[in-house]
Structures are given as C-alpha cells and as structure tokens.
Amino acid sequence: MKGKDGKPHIGILGRRNCGKSSLINCLIGQEVAIVSDKPGTTTDPVKKSIEIPGIGPVVMIDTAGSDDIGTLGAKRVRKTRDVIRVIDLALLVITGNRFGDEEDSLIAELVRWEVPYLVVHNKSDLVPSGSSLRQRILSSTGKVVVDFSTVEPDNKEELVELMRSSIPETAYMPRSMVGDIIAEGDLVLLITPIDEEAPEGRMILPQVQAIRDILDQDAIAVVAKEKEIETLLKKLQPRPALVITDSQAFKLADAAVPADIPLTSFSTVLARYKGDFENYLKGTPHLDMLNEGERILILESCTHHVTCNDIGRIKIPGWLSAYTGKQLEYEVVAGLNNVPGKITDYSMVIQCGGCMITRKQLINRLKPALEAGIPVSNYGMAIAYVHGVFDRAVAPFLKPDHRIRSTP
C-alpha cells in the first residue's frame, strides 16, 4: 500500500460482507466502491481520494475482509492489516452483534499503531446492536457503538461529525514548514541543482512545497542553481534570512554561504516538519559507530525512475562508505512496502524526507526500529553529517543552548 497523498487517510476495517464498501458510498454520496452480497468482493486495499461533506478532502481505504480464508485470503488479510500503519482514523465495521477475537485482534493492532478508531454497527435497520454488545465494547475499549444503516442513514451527519472530531489535528499538517524561523518580508534563497535526477520540465515536490510555504509567510523566495550562489549572494538585497539547499549541494553551499546566514536543506526542513526530528537528532551521530559488514536500511517513501546517480541507492551508500571507511551492506525499500527480514537485522535506518506520504505514515514507518532501539536518521541530516555540516544544518530549528556535535 503506497502512500502518495498528504490528506488524512481513513481506513474501513471489518469482516467480509459487513457493508464496508456500502458505507464508503453512503458517506460520500457516490457509487465509488463495488458493492455485492457475495463475501470477498473487495480483494485488495483500494484507495479513493474523495471529499466528505463536513470533513473535506480525505483518502478512504476500502479493505478486504479481515476474516478472509484460504491461502489467497491470508494474503488479503495481511494487506488489510498493513493498512493500519498508514491511516489516521479507522472505522471498525461490525454487523449482527458479532464482536469477537477477530475484532479484538484488529483493535490490538490499532492501539499498537496509535490509530484512533470508531466502532460502527452497520446494517442496523436489519439487526440493531444489543445492549449486552454495547456494554461489552464500552467496558473493553471505552468506545460507544454507533448504530448505522446505509439504507436508512438518518444519523449520517452525527457519524461524519464523530469522524471529523476523531481525526488527529496532525493529520491535516496545518503548521508551516519554515514560518517560525522567517518573518514577513524576509528573503529566502533556495539552491536547486538541475541534474539528471531532476524531473523533466518541473521541480521536485519539496522545492515546490518550500516555495509555497515561503510565499504564505509573505516572504520572498529566490531560486538559483548551485553554480550561481557566490555571484548571487554578492547582489542580493536584503541578505537572505535563510538558505535552503538540495542536500547533494550541502558541501558547496556551506563553503559559499557566509557563516552568519542560516543554512539548511530541503530534506532537513521536511525532517522537522513531517518526520521524527528529535530521534533523527539522537540517531544520526550513530554513523560514527557503524562496524564492518553491518546492514543499513534506507527507506524511500515513494517510487521513481532510478538513475545511475540515484540518491538513495548510489550516492548515500557511497558517501557513508567513504565516511566510515567500512564495507557496509545496504537495503533500499521503496514506497511503504514491507521491510525484508527482521528490523533487528539492521544497525541503522535512514528515512527520506517523506514529501509524498503523511506524517502518520512516516512516524509508523520508523516505529518498529525505534521500539527495537535501532538509531534512525534522515537523508538530509545523514548527508550533512558525513560532510561535516550537521550542526549548521539543524541549527535553524534548535534552541540556542541545544548543541549537536559537529563532525570533523
């Protein structure tokens, strides 16, 4: 299940034939999900970018029944459970007063991944929820069961309001990327190399997001290639209040940009905006402690055309091996695909900026590593560290008394 949309993600979970697809259609008022009386109609998780009146743009994920059977069914169930790691809210759908080990297991996963959820008793026009069921669920989960019928959706607005109030505010990413470190009228210089990895005819998403965020702060964005930095800095008035560079040009930018001008990278900005910045700060210096033959897991949260100078597959491994002087092994996992083997097979995890996924997806991507005590870092912060500019890269986002050890 690949995450390529920053809107809140809502997953619909439950047994086969409990009306999950019908519920989606009812909530949005359109026939977007295939509905059938035959159990197992939905075979794989299906993402639908939609707008729910009262909530706004969201991504709904329709899943296969959590009680699917057979060899193929077991694979579908695994896919359904994988969805839990990437959603911001779950609707656990039950019918006919059935609530047992299946639902308890799903709830345990939701709790583990810190996903808020609602319990919806669907098809209540046929069989309403009983008092004993409601009491059992309330006692064990603290949840009040919501009776609902897609045939007679009289309380649809109440369900939508419950969904809206249950989605964490962080799912909407309302905060600014750099709004707390720049002011109205400030000039921000963006260094954006145009090389074989740059997409044809456009800029990469983090650059576009940064430009928009700067403009939203009523500041000024100036964009230039790395070879123009020195000449441009002599002409720019006012002087930049901040310089943001592509991580690959960090060393060059560090030499060209005066020390009194704050300098960071697009990936470091994303690390603080969307990633686990505090754990990146703690984990990045572990690069000095890697041993011969250890395995590094590189998480790239999107899929793209791979070039001979790919940042995650070629450049970062090259820089790390040169910096450590060790023969290290690297595993690159794209999208939100499962990690090969056990997370404990790896000595360190390096996560991309995550511009194409939600904060929830990124945080849960790192959760198994952090639970196992494995250090984590970020593309930009790791690159800054091996090039000796780590302190400078993170300084704009730290309190004055929070010092990080610089590399030699």
Describe this structure in words.
By secondary structure, this protein is α/β, with parallel strands linked by helices. It folds into 3 domains: 9-172, Rossmann fold, CATH 3.40.50.300; 187-270, Rossmann fold; 279-386, Rossmann fold. It has helices at residues 20-28, 70-83, 101-112, 131-141, 156-166, 205-216, 229-235, 250-256, 266-273, 277-283, 311-324, 359-371, 379-386, 390-394; strands at 9-14, 46-52, 56-62, 89-94, 117-121, 146-147, 187-191, 220-224, 242-245, 263-265, 295-300, 329-334, 348-351, 376-378. The strands form 3 sheets. Strands 2-3-1-4-5-6 form a 6-stranded mixed sheet, sandwiched between helices. Strand 5 (117-121), helix 4 and strand 6 (146-147) form a beta-alpha-beta unit. The model is unreliable at 401-408 (pLDDT under 50).
C-alpha-based Rg, rounded? 24 Å
Strand content: 15-25%
What structural category arises from helix and sheet content? alpha/beta
What characteristic shape results from the CA principal axes?
globular
Average pLDDT score:
87
Helix content range: 25-40%
Total E-strand runs: 14
Unreliable parts: 401-408
CATH fold annotation of the largest domain? Rossmann fold
Note the main sheet. 6 strands, mixed
Q: Mind telling me the CATH superfamily name of the largest domain?
A: P-loop containing nucleotide triphosphate hydrolases
Rounded to the nearest angstrom, the distance between the terminal CA atoms is 41 Å
Count of alpha and pi helical runs: 14
Number of domains: 3
